[in-house]
Design a protein that fits this description.
Order of helices and strands of chain B: EEEEEEEEEEE
Largest interface: A-B, 27 and 22 residues
Distance between the termini of chain B: 36 Å
Shape of chain B: globular
Shape of chain A: globular
Radius of gyration of chain B: 13 Å
Number of strands of chain A: 11
Structural class of chain A: mainly beta
Low-confidence stretches of chain A: none
Distance between the termini of chain A: 41 Å
Oligomer: heterodimer
Strand content of chain A: over 45%
Largest sheet of chain B: 7 strands, mixed
Order of helices and strands of chain A: EEEEEEEEEEE
Strand content of chain B: over 45%
Helix content of chain B: under 10%
Number of strands of chain B: 11
Number of helices of chain A: 0
Number of helices of chain B: 0
Radius of gyration of chain A: 13 Å
Structural class of chain B: mainly beta
Largest sheet of chain A: 6 strands, mixed
Chain lengths: ~110, ~110
């Protein structure tokens, strides 16, 4: 089945710096890609859903890049602020799946 | 936006006892899921459920686990009997289609002592 590897497991940056989290996946038929944010003690909130046909996806304060050739998905937080401190999870699925596969998560700390 | 409600938010239970975790999914969603998370780390898939049946389950979904959604009421995860290693946060999720974005509940923090 699909395997999703997420790096790094922990990331600490200064306020205003960028933060990059990357996931690689194994199934070339993967079709939908997701980034979730989980604040401490809270549930997972969907940041962005990406279709396989879109390589660059802009959000508010972040960009999601999809490289299908390398089977790589990245979340780039531009000018991180302390409110971005949270756990971030990538997730991958394809049309024929009944579920999505999560990466192991990245604990991001943004220091003032 | 639409929410998934989980009841209770916290549960402490003696090892060997039964526990039922309740999930009220988004009203028009058809697919339901349970995930297990330990120490804020990886989200581990347990089971998904559609049309009254388990579609897929993982190795973590032990024989002591069961799910059901009788008559469109709560989607429940029952553990009987519980073990110490069942201590975790259990997240329920629902979706309209099987591989689209999920709506997650806030989780039930289960502590087995």
């Amino acid at each position: 089945g699909e395997q999703v590897e997420q790096r790094p497991p922990h990331l600490s940056v200064r306020e205003g710096d960028s933060a990059v989290i990357t996931c690689t996946y194994t199934d070339p038929n993967s079709y939908y890609f997701f980034w979730y944010k989980q604040e401490p003690g809270a549930s997972l909130q969907l940041l962005m859903k990406v279709f396989s046909s879109t390589e660059i996806n802009e959000g508010q304060g972040f960009t999601v890049l999809l490289n299908k050739k390398d089977k790589r998905l990245s979340l780039n937080l531009t000018a991180a602020h302390p409110g971005d401190s949270a756990a971030y999870f990538c997730a991958v699925t394809r049309n024929s799946n009944n579920r999505i596969f999560f990466g192991d998560g990245t604990q991001l700390v943004v220091k003032p | 936006g639409p929410k998934v409600l989980q009841i209770p938010s916290h549960q402490i239970i003696d090892m060997g006892q039964m526990v039922t975790l309740n999930c009220d999914p988004v009203s028009n969603h058809l697919y339901f899921y349970w995930y297990k998370q330990i120490l804020g780390q990886q989200m581990e898939f347990l089971v998904n459920f559609y049309n009254g049946k388990v579609m897929e389950k993982s190795k973590l979904f032990k024989d002591q686990f069961s799910v059901e959604r009788p008559d469109g009421s709560y989607f429940t995860l029952k553990i009987q009997p519980t073990a110490l290693e069942d201590s975790a946060v259990y997240f329920c999720a629902s979706s309209l289609v099987p591989n689209s974005d999920y709506t997650f509940g806030s989780g039930t923090r289960l502590l087995v002592i």
